[in-house]
Amino acid sequence: MADLRLPSRVEEALSEIAGDPTMNDGMEAVMERVVEFESRMAAKLTGVFLNPLALARYDEVLDELWANGSTPTEASEIVIGSGLHAAIYCAVRVRQGFPKPLVIEASPRAGGAFATTRLPSLFLNSRNRPGRLGIPGREEALNVIPAAPVQPADLSGAEYQTNTALAFSIRASLALNARIVCGRKVITADASGVVLDDGRRVKATRVIWATGLGEPSLPPEADGERVIHYMDFLAMLDRPFPFQGLRRVAVVGAGDSGKTAIEALIGQGPSTRWSVPSLDYVEKIDWYGVERRCCSKKGWEANNRSRYAGIGRALPLEADEEGELLTPSRVTPINGRAETLSVGFGGASINGVTYDLVVWAGGFDAMDIEGMVEYSTGGRAVARMSQPNVFVVGPAAQLPPVEECDELGTVAENSAALFRYADRTAVFAAHLPQFALPAEPDPPPPPSITSVTMQGEPNQFPGEMR
Fold first, then answer.
1. What average pLDDT does range 408-418 have in this prediction?
2. Helix locations, 323-458, DSSP H
3. Of 279, 282, 326, 454, which residue is most buried, by most CB within 10 angstroms?
4. Looking at the structure, do residues 348 and 395 belong to the same domain, yes or no?
5. Are 234 and 359 in the same domain?
6. Cβ-count burial of 134 within 10 angstroms (0-12 exposed, 13-18 middle, 19+ buried)?
7. Residue 438 forms part of a structural domain
8. Are the C-beta atoms of 219 and 229 separated by less than 8 Å?
9. Does the pLDDT of residue 273 top 90, yes or no?
10. Under the phi-then-psi rule, with left for phi > 0, alpha for psi from -120 to 50, and beta for the rest, what region is 351?
11. Please, which contacts does 451-458 make with residues 24 or more away whose CB atoms are closer than 8 Å?
12. pLDDT tens across 98-144, in order?
């Protein structure tokens, strides 16, 4: 049987919260409706999230626990990365009765991209709905973590939840279903285990890469101070007065990262962390890479999802047929590339214009999947396999959108969407046997063979995908 108990230190923290009048109001309120939750654990965790002091305390305990954990010399399974897909894989494996996988995280804090900040820093793209995981356009739930002890829809009634709701669900699931080692980077991985950055080898029967979007993509001129990646910008929002000394800022990239960066800069994000306008006001924001048709308020609202409609209020009211802006605005969309970038004394310059800060929202460097084969279950690609018993899951696997309609598959914002990959990772984890697959003694298949298929339908697991 799998060990479904929380670590004793986490159990102690929950008891501490339940007995503290400054932290227990959320838990007491929720426990009055405990029978309506999927489990008592879901109710308790929801109560923790509802009180900011309780949430901070729970987060602190998890960070301390994982920071002080020792690195074992072997494990049944190793998962590289501690984000959404690591949480899904570990939760499903434990529900199947297998031992808790060992999760190795390079950063000091587990939880992945959504846990970059402890305080809310961005709103999610998908509306908050309860129920099973679905796809857009069907009024189905989109923010679902299969087999997790608590779901984001349990935590708040906001139409668009913040990153902290998803981070809390991910971290709570890891606490229950994994052993965590933070601050250690995996250098190499093969069918016998991994080698860490301190030279230690950890043996395992199976290795799962769950590294999400990949490493932040940055130009060589980035100095970490005047030119920073979007993820570092998010981390900056956790500090008091993050916009102190910033008067002119550039954002490069108009995808979801760029949009949420703009929201934070103009006060439409969930938290500005004491950056009140009377002290720290970003007066001018140049936004590179915006499509010409979106450069005015009217054009923006006509060509973007309603989730981001508020950005239009900060854009020029009018533009002519050539896209030239006719009215001044706080945010100036620039339908062009950042051709030249340089860092100098007191600022950074793009195309000859100097800024106090450049936020590079240009994406991430994806994992090299050349030579990897698709790993399929029940006729459906759910992961990639680089060698026997070494797999890649989640966005890092770059799987084709075979089960979504063509329109969803071609929308750029859906390339790494939760709804595209969460169920695949869950099915993959549910179907794998306990022990390692037999290694193929023959040479790798020729390039024309693009998938490996396991026979049979995916196993079901308790709770399925609420």
1. 64
2. 406-410, 418-431
3. 282
4. no
5. yes
6. middle
7. yes
8. no
9. no
10. left
11. 451/373, 451/374, 451/375, 451/376, 451/381, 452/373, 452/374, 452/375, 452/376, 452/385, 453/376, 453/377, 453/379, 454/375, 454/376, 454/377, 456/378, 456/431, 457/378, 458/377, 458/378, 458/427, 458/430, 458/431
12. 999 999 999 999 999 999 999 999 999 888 988 888 777 677 778 89
Read off the tokens for 314.
């900060």
Give the least confident one: 32-36, 289-293, 402-406.
402-406
Please state at what angle helix 40-50 crosses helix 52-67, rounded to 10 degrees. Answer: 110
Cα separation of 141 and 133, whole Å?
Answer: 5
**Strand intervals (E) in 27-168:** 74-80, 102-105
pLDDT at 323 over 70: no
Record the tokens describing residue 374, joined without a space. 């698709």
Residue 194, pLDDT above cutoff 80: yes
The pTM for the full model equals 0.89
Which of 330, 364, 398 represents a domain boundary (last residue)?
A: 364
Give the CA count within 13 Å in the CB-facing half-sphere of 57.
22
pLDDT tens digit sequence for 295-304: 999 999 999 9
Across the strands, what pairs with 376?
Answer: 381, 453
Provide the CATH number for the domain around residue 272.
3.50.50.60
The CA–CA distances, whole Å, from 145 to 84, 316, 424, 429 equal 7, 39, 12, 13
Given this model, what pLDDT does residue 336 score? 86
Contact 432, 390 (CB under 8 A): no
CA–CA distances in Å: residue 143 to residues 135, 153, 219, 230: 10, 8, 32, 22
Question: Cβ of 192: how many Cβ atoms within 10 Å?
Answer: 15
Pair 118, 191 in one domain? yes
Examine residue 29 and state whether it is found in any structural domain, yes or no.
Answer: no
Give the angle 125-126-130 at the CA atoms, nearest 5°: 155
Q: Is 462's pLDDT higher than 70?
A: no
* Mean pLDDT score, 320-348: 82
Same domain, 337 and 225: yes
- C-alpha 303/C-alpha 254 separation (Å) is 13
Indicate the residue among 321, 343, 364 that finishes a domain: 364
274 and 346: one domain?
yes
Together in a domain, 224 and 339? yes
Residue 12 lies in a domain: no
Q: Is residue 15 part of a domain?
A: no
User: Residue 283 belongs to what domain range?
Assistant: 216-364
Q: Which residues have C-beta within 8 Å of that of residue 430, sequence separation ≥ 6?
A: 92, 95, 96, 458, 459, 460, 461
**pLDDT surpasses 90 at 411:** no
